[in-house]
Amino acid sequence: MDIFKELDEKVLEGSLIDLDTLNELKFITRNDFYKSFKSKKICIFSNCKNKSIKRSHTIPRSGSLKIISDDSHLLYPHLCETGDELSMRMERIGIGEASVFPGFCKEHEKIFAEFEQKKDIDSIEQAKLQAYRSICREIVINNLELEKIKKAIVKYKNERNRQYKLGMESKIGKKVEKVKIEYNDIPLNFANMSKVKITEKLEFLSKIHDKFLESIKNEENDENVFMNVIHTDMKIPIALSGLGYANIIDEENNHREIKSILNVIPFESSTVLIFAGDNVDKEILDNHFDYIIQHPILILNFIESFMMHGTDHWFIQPEVWNKMDEEKQKYILEYFFVTEKAFLQDVNFSIFDDIRKDYLVKLTLPEGLKESEENKFNFNLKNPQKSIMDSLNERYNYFYETNGI
């Protein structure tokens, strides 16, 4: 029947619901998410039943975020939706709101007090606690994201059924009691893809959380986790905490996904890098760690790589970002979302120009490394990049082809 064919085609191409209604659904979903994000939860520390405080800082506020801020504010990358368009923007945020999550109760907040008050991380035990805090944030945020997607799917399906029902009624000229569409369309497939990816991430995070907690409680369990720390007098105006991925081919020619938690914690006269993960990836992570500690500029490269190829949970000093010309800012924000590189690969352009120039003048570099670092200043920022939507569509197609769906 032509009525059903026309409506079914609209469903399959995702155009049954008009743009204004879709935007309203997205607004309601985002609003529900922010309300949930700002409300107290059960403390994430194992077997604790107390309510969390509303704002646990993942990155120390006074000893780290404050010192790289301008007027107590920072900038961070944020994915924005305007109509049916997506874009990456740098948003301004106060240090009281930066890196927070509803994580720990008042009692368990105290386990981080020693290095927060000292405004330094100078032991493996303290670094382990900071890595653990980062893992906890990832678990809380990803659980909230998963909850958001599930609620959005329900709202979308209800609205799709309503619109289909209205379409049928307008065509046949009489009331229809109920409509329930069973098959998926493109928006639902995108949502289901996100559900799968977040669920897989949470499986890893849950496993690594338990291993780190056991290691914190009993140092004899250190063999289950990978930990390396760099304490350097480099002053990098960035604070970062997040999870990165890298796909490799192992010695047996099998494809493997490496995951690592990285923290870049700035202090008044130093920066601490905490490189953590599952011990099953120890050899690969150790090799990369041994490589980057050979020279300060390789450490800088690694920080830039994790910013671009790892996590979007980072905060930069506004003065540093605002010194960049608009063309470079635009390129970085587009690259950040569409790149397919992993955190084990360097970025081809410079983010921290002043620091890199200072190193090139003051430090001795092997000739090949010096040339490659100088070339980063001359990178062609006019190279065309994929749009965010094209990148999303490629990931969508790859996911469903790979999973045979």
What is the topology?
Layout: H1 2-13, H2 19-37, E1 56-57, H3 61-65, E2 73-82, E3 85-94, E4 100-101, H4 106-109, H5 113-118, H6 124-172, H7 186-217, E5 225-232, E6 238-249, E7 255-266, E8 271-278, H8 282-292, H9 296-309, E9 314-316, H10 318-322, H11 326-338, H12 353-362, H13 367-375, H14 388-402
Antiparallel strand pairs: 1-4, 2-3, 5-8, 6-7, 6-9, 7-8
Please characterize this protein's 3D structure.
There is one protein chain. With 405 residues, the chain is of the alpha+beta class. The chain has 2 domains: 219 residues, no CATH class; 179 residues, no CATH class. It is built from 14 helices and 9 strands. The strands form 3 sheets. It has a 5-stranded antiparallel beta sheet with strand order 5-8-7-6-9, sandwiched between helices. Strands 1-4 form a two-stranded antiparallel sheet. Helix 2 runs antiparallel to helix 6. The longest helix is centred in the middle third of the chain and has 49 residues. The two termini are 28 Å apart. 28% of the residues are buried. The mean pLDDT is 90.
Number of helices: 14
- How many strand elements? 9
Strand content: 15-25%
What is the molecular shape? globular
Bin the helical content.
40-55%
Low-confidence runs: none
Main pleated-sheet profile: 5 strands, antiparallel
Q: Give me the side-by-side strand order of the main sheet.
A: 5-8-7-6-9
* Whole-number mean pLDDT: 90
Number of individual domains: 2
Alpha-beta content class: alpha+beta
Rg over CA atoms: 24 Å
**How far is the first residue's CA from the last residue's CA?**
28 Å
Strand and helix order:
HHEHEEEHHHHEEEEHHEHHHHH
